[in-house]
Amino acid sequence: MADLHKTVTDLEMDKDPSMDVADKTTGLAKRERLVVQETWKEAGKLGWGTVGLALFNLYFDRHPEYILMFRAFKDISREDLRTHARLKAHGLNVVNALTGVIENLEDTETTVLLLEKTGRDHVRRKLHSKHFENLHLTVIELFRNVLGPNFTPFVEASWNKALTVVMGVVLNSLKQEKIAQGVTDEE
């Protein structure tokens, strides 16, 4: 983690004006994109299955009612679910999708397509904006826990900015797909 601290500090302090040029699609400055990518790589050192499991355990700890939205988890006790292979597999799927997005933040066309697919895929799961907003908050909390003192205000602001863009694209796609399918949105 000492290397991460140096990387984050270097990115934050870099005086190169090109580091502050915002991407026209995401609004992320190069330094923000790089800190998101570097901290994601650091989290990956724990193993993506571990990260996915930790993410969903934290999500369900904060929102236990969400467990009922997952048919595969309904008959599993909360204690058993904490280490259950089904939860680990789902967490790994989500983390792999996030990896695809994060690794391609500079390729906004690909990133937007990945996120739009995520939005469309979640219509049938009857998810709403609050579920994604709470996932955003859970990712931030997870990173605060995983990165410890390396989760600086700069890192947090960069992640919040990136996740706001990510969730915005997902939610717009979710909304458009609901309209296309004639699904009423009752949150």
Automatic annotation (TrEMBL):
Name listed for the protein in its UniProt record: Globin domain-containing protein
Lineage of origin: Eukaryota, Metazoa, Ecdysozoa, Tardigrada, Eutardigrada
Any single Pfam family the record assigns to this protein: Globin
InterPro entries linked: Globin, Globin-like_sf, Globin/Proto, Mb-like_M
Keywords: Heme, Iron, Metal-binding, Oxygen transport, Transport
Keyword check for Metal-binding: yes
UniProt source species: Hypsibius exemplaris
GO molecular-function terms, A-Z: heme binding; metal ion binding; oxygen binding; oxygen carrier activity
Family designation: Belongs to the globin family.
SUPFAM superfamilies: Globin-like
Globin domain: residues covered: 27-175
Keyword RNA-binding: no
